[in-house]
Automatic annotation (TrEMBL):
InterPro entries: Mtc. This is Sidoreflexin. Belongs to the sideroflexin family. The chain crosses the membrane at residues 151-170, 182-203, 242-259, 271-295.
């Protein structure tokens, strides 16, 4: 294997960037969410997977560089689920979260929402989130379709209830001027989405709490199934789902309330929607890697904190688990 400038020696299944620091995880997840991987063809994906298989079995063609191997692994990780080895449907990949999610965010933040439009955009957002959560779950244990349906319905009901409830309260608050009421309404999506995101993650992945998730030793061998590790995985994922909508649903209303007062947008009101779309895209592009970088995807936990049967089954002081995205 030939060396490559700017690339460390290749390690199969290991991140290219250091995962103990936030900056390292941030750079790693920028690779994971790179939208360019959406355009990788089936033949290119097959070549990337085959290259990694050749490396695994020691049959690499001469002249293959670390750069080529890291790129092959990036493609595989962006498209193929680590537990099922199945291709993730394009709109539900993390690399597709921003391109497919931005139009929904723009819809959530549209001013002067009616009851019907509020319900529609909250339903669409939670439908997309539910599918993304399911597609990127920890899949070391099989989960029933009924669990998916329960999680989906719970998330949609909670999001719509909170959003509609807050809108009704604001409309009935006579002490606010119409301008203030409109400004406050723009912030309604955040508490609705943040609360629903927690419900979405917990309900969609509740089976993991009951059955546990696989934990692995340093050599990648399965030590056992842990419900405590599952609880940590869900907590970490839920926290990222609260942090994620903060910049997306809080910054654009603030920025747009300032921009709409500018002479440019006052004289060209048709530009408001394109400008808002760009602001949402920029906020989304910043928020997603920041949020999912809070914790490593393969999280580490001390065996002494897990069930006795787990700590007694290995000599390793720590084990790792896939927390999901």
């Amino acid at each position: 294997m030939a060396a490559s400038a700017g690339y460390p020696p290749f390690q199969l299944g290991k991140p290219r960037f250091e995962q103990t620091s936030f900056y390292g995880r941030f750079r790693h997840f920028l690779d994971i969410i790179d939208p360019r991987t959406l355009f990788v063809t089936k033949s290119h994906l097959k070549e990337a997977v085959q290259l990694l298989e050749d490396y695994k079995h020691g049959t690499l063609p001469p002249g293959v560089t670390s750069k080529e191997l890291w790129r092959a692994q990036k493609i595989k990780q962006a498209i193929i689920h680590p537990d099922t080895n199945e291709t993730i449907f394009m709109p539900f990949r993390m690399s597709g979260y921003i391109p497919f999610g931005t139009p929904i965010v723009v819809g959530l933040l549209l001013p002067n929402q009616t009851l019907a439009s509020t319900i529609f955009w909250q339903w669409l957002n939670q439908s997309h989130n539910a599918c993304v959560n399911y597609a990127n779950r920890n899949a070391t244990k099989p989960s029933a379709t009924s669990k998916f349906i329960q999680g989906y319905l719970g998330a949609v009901v909670s999001a719509v209830s909170i959003a509609v409830g807050l809108n009704v309260l604001i409309q009935r608050a006579n002490q606010f001027t119409p301008a203030t009421r409109l400004l406050i309404q723009r912030f309604v999506p955040f508490p609705a989405v943040a609360s629903a995101n927690i419900c979405n993650v917990v309900l969609m992945r509740h089976a993991e709490l009951e059955e546990g998730i696989d934990v692995l030793d340093g050599d990648g061998n399965i030590v056992g199934s842990s419900r405590i590790a599952a609880k940590h995985a869900l907590l970490e994922t839920a926290l990222t789902r609260v942090v994620l909508p903060m910049p997306i649903l809080v910054l654009p209303p603030i920025i747009m309330s300032l921009l709409e007062k500018s002479a440019l947008l006052r004289s060209r009101p048709r530009m408001i929607l394109p400008v808002q779309s760009f602001v949402c895209l920029a906020a989304f592009g910043l928020a997603l890697p920041l949020a999912i970088s809070l914790f490593p995807q393969m999280s580490e936990i001390e065996t002494s904190r897990l069930e006795p049967e787990i700590s007694g089954a290995t000599t390793s002081k720590t084990v790792v688990y896939n927390k999901g995205l």
